Every structure is written in structure tokens, then in C-alpha cells.
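User: Fold this; C-alpha cells only.

Assistant: Input:
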Amino acid sequence: MSDTRTEGQKLEERLLYKRQNIWEKVDEEYIKKAFDFCEDYKSFLNTSKTEREFAANTEKLAVAAGFRKLDDLISSNTRLKPGDKVYHINRKKSAVLAVVGNKPLSEGVNILGSHIDAPRLDLKQNPLYEDTQMAFFKTHYYGGIKKYQWLTIPLAIHGVVVKGDGTTVEIVVGEDEDDPVFSITDLLPHLAREQMQKKMSEAVTGEGLNLLLGSIPFNDEKVKEKVKLNILSILNKRYGIVEEDFQSAELEIVPAQKARDVGFDKSMIGGYGQDDRVCAYPALRALLDIDVPERTAVCLLTDKEEIGSMGNTGAQSNLLEDFLANVIALTEDPYSDLKVRSCLSRSKMLSADVNAAVDPNYESVYEKRNATYLGHGIVLQKYTGARGKYDASDASAEFVGEVRKLFNDNGIIWQTGELGKVDEGGGGTIAQYAANLGIDVLDCGIAVLSMHSPFEITSKIDIYMTYNAYKVFCRI
């Protein structure tokens, strides 16, 4: 069959960069695999609404896949060999896993780095109060949220309470069909004239995000705050806690709904916490599903990214360095700190974090030539930061070229993009903290609609393509 294209058309095909819609490029078998993978993802998302739950479920999957606890190996001085699988759960809120490769760790490792916390509402230290014969919890929002989005939706309570005797009780209320849910009330439109005239950022205040808990008074005329006491009585009977125990509690308020398919074609997933669990889960699965890689493959799952990656469970901690140092001590003899430094300086990392998909309802904030689109593949973001690239990690052209070639050679469909127009804002990831250690880092994740809302939306085909991209990176 003769080629009827003009010279210009041939040149255009050869020279121009074009985005690709994955749905138009893959066959039915690939789409079926994507849908099957996303069923597992939705199930994991439903049971991993907090960083503690994600870390606990990570450990379950790791153990089932043959990973061994690093602390046990250190205690027994067990030497590691290529193909061995190890993991470490840090303070029940972050995790690191590795599959030992054929090459020494001192020659560098390949890292998939993601965060497992998400915007939410936390309870204050003295949260319980009564007003107008109703009981409420005071909250303090965590991360960047639009406060009005958290009103009048079903909410659940997840977390732990450390009681006065030192024992810990886990609490999850609002997820089972028979559970009650909770809510933050809003003003009826009939009386909201003044509220409606305010800016969206001012119409709902942080101190106004109070969770409604109950309204039945305790049956005792001599008690002042009868509804509050009744709630405490219920909590005491169910969990054995008293009001002072809230001082040593970590209770998070999250949306009560489960992840759902979106659209008549079921091509998308809607659910809470997809920033950044939509990248963290494929990264975790990619590591669990590989055999013996050439370079040791690592999956880093951190906490506190939404508030700056601070603390001993965040990306600014020594978690990654300590983990690599211990694995080097169990694989290379003799051990030295220089080998750890060599490992870090020769390592490569994909910062597995999300980007903002173009929303045609708000397209004025996007620079569409350099924006990301749902269904167009994994996003390569050379630099992050805000406005003049402040607080950015800016990957080198050489490393971007390396990843680009790797994906092209392995049939991975990808796109590039920035987080909105230059002067509109921006955002950061954990990439900058890995880069500070000397690691080559590129932000590489999934496009999301309605980011940081209680119901974020992603494309199933992007999720599965990203899983395959992470597997390719782990194997080299």
C-alpha cells in the first residue's frame, strides 16, 4: 500500500511532539487489565484513609509478598543477597521497602518516592464541647483545603487514642453501613445573605469547622453539660476512654464515602485521598511485583508532605538514609559511611506525586500547552515550586532525557506539564528533599481533577500506565 502522505505531513509526524490519549492507543486486553488493577486500588484506598492505615496495609502486602522486617535482619545479622526483600515501618506512619539488586548499593539505587498523608481535619487537643444542647468536636484542618468543601458531607473518624494507662485503642467510626456518620453544618440560603457576600476563603472559618456528634442529654438534672456527658459516656463504654485521653490522641476526620467509579463508561475513579495515594499504591505494587532488579529498587512512603514534610516521619527526616545505611551494612563488607554517600550520589528517584489535570470549567488558570490531561499518561514534571520556581526541585536535562528514553523504549505513554500558569501559584513535592541528598530526582505521577477536595478524580488508564512505568524504572 502506497504512502499518500505529503512531505509536510511526514515531516510533521517526525518532528512534532504530540500528546497521546491512551484509550486510543491500547487494546481491549490492556484496558481490562487496567480496570482489574483499579479494583484492587479502590479496595486499598477504602481501607487506607490515614497514613497509619496505609502503613499498616503496606506491611500486610509486604509480608504476603515475602518481604522481611529490616529490624529482625539487623538483630540476627542476616546477610542479604540479590532478590532478598526487606521493609521498615517507621513509627506506624511511614515506610521504606527494598528489593536487593545484582549491583552493590554503593553504586546507587532506584527509588520510587511518594507520600501517604492527605488533607483532612484533625481533632484539637481539647475537642469536645456542648452548645445549644448539641455536642461537637473542635477541629484543626491539615494541609491545603477549601474549607467550604467539608460542610454538609458524611464524615468518619479514624485514628488512635492512647489512654492514661498507656494502652492504645484504635477508632474507626463512619465506614460500616450500620455506623453513624458525622457532619459539619452550613447556613441555610434563606439566612445566608451576609455569608454569600464574603470571599469563598472567608465564608467558612477554620474555627467554624466543628463536627456534630449528638444531641441526646444524659438523664441527670444535676449535670450541667448533659449532651457532652452522654457522648463521653458512650465513648467510655465503647472504648474505655475519658476526656483527658484526647490529649494523647490522633483522631482524623475524613470523608465517609468509598471510592467509586465515575462516568457512564466507568473510566475514572472518584474518592478521598488520591493525592498522593493514587501514586503511592502503584509505586508500592510495582516494587512488590518485580523480580531481581539490576540496581536495588526502593519504595519510600512518607508522611507530613502536605504540611512541609517535617518531623521524624516526613521526607526531611533521616528515614531514607538510615534505611540505606542498614541495607548496605547487610550487603557490603566492610561497611563505611562513604558507601552510603556514594549510594545517595549515584541514586535515581521518581518522585511519585500528582499533578493538576486541565479542567475545562476553570481553564483560565492553566497554560494549556504546558498542562496535563486526564487519560494522557504519566506526567513528567521537570520542576515544581511556586511562581519563580521557589521551593522547587528542578531535574537535570540529562535525567529527564534518561527517563524519557526509558519510557519510550518500553511503550510507556507519558506527558509533561506544570501546575497551572506561572503566576497562579504552584506546589511542591518530596523531590527537593531527596535532591538535597544528591539524588537525581524527577517528579513523575498522575493527573488529578478536584485535587485536595474530599472527592478527587483520576483516570483508570493513567493509573495502570503509571504502575507499568514504575515497574520499568524499578527493573533497571
